[in-house]
Amino acid sequence: MAEEAQTERPGRSGEAYHAESAEAVVDHLESSTDRGLTNEEAQRRRERHGPNELPEDKRAGLVGIFLRQFTDPLIYILLIAAGVSLAIGSFASAAFITAVLLLNAIVGCFQEYQSESSAQALQSVVRMCPRVLRDGQRDKVDATELVPGDIVLLETGDTVPADLRLIDSTNVQADESLITGESTPVDKDAGAELEEDTPSLSVRHYCIRAVQ
Hints:
The chain is an alpha+beta fold.
């Protein structure tokens, strides 16, 4: 099954590509269903559009993670209790509540920092390498190197590496639960004819990349 990686032609925007035929979209993107892009053209588009990835949020430091441990409503109640105990002269109770809060914050900070570090390390190791058509040859590339006009070849069980326009499909279903919340797979059809005002999540010949 062949699919197109993105539906934005360099220098054009606002086009209702979902209302056009697959052939027209390929033409707009100056690509080819038989040969795909040339490696040189893919390199030029990558330099123009940048990598196929979302910007990552800046990771919070230890101090930020530690302070986050005090944002729970229950923590606010305990802090108020500690303040009241201190105000009425019950220093032992205030010290005990404060010690519990600090211990909870330290343990929570350590666990959250470890979890974020493990997730980041796993993400750097597990990379998507979809099959694409370049210069008439099938090749695997890193998903971040996909550009508008790339012809992506998907098979059963593959993860969608970018927002794609279907060119050809046979009994295709996509899991879009992360996007729509629907637990059942969604039927996709490369030949579906749609109106320009069709909502994006109802476009049957698009496969959308879900990001957690």
